Amino acid sequence: MTDISETQTDDKNEPQMELLPPPIITAPTASVVSRPFTIRAIVPSVAHTNWDIDFYKVGEASRFKRYSGGLGAGLIELVAPADLPEGENIYFKIQYRSHTGIYSLWATSRTFKID
Question: How far apart are CA 101 and CA 6, in angstroms?
Answer without folding.
Answer: 32
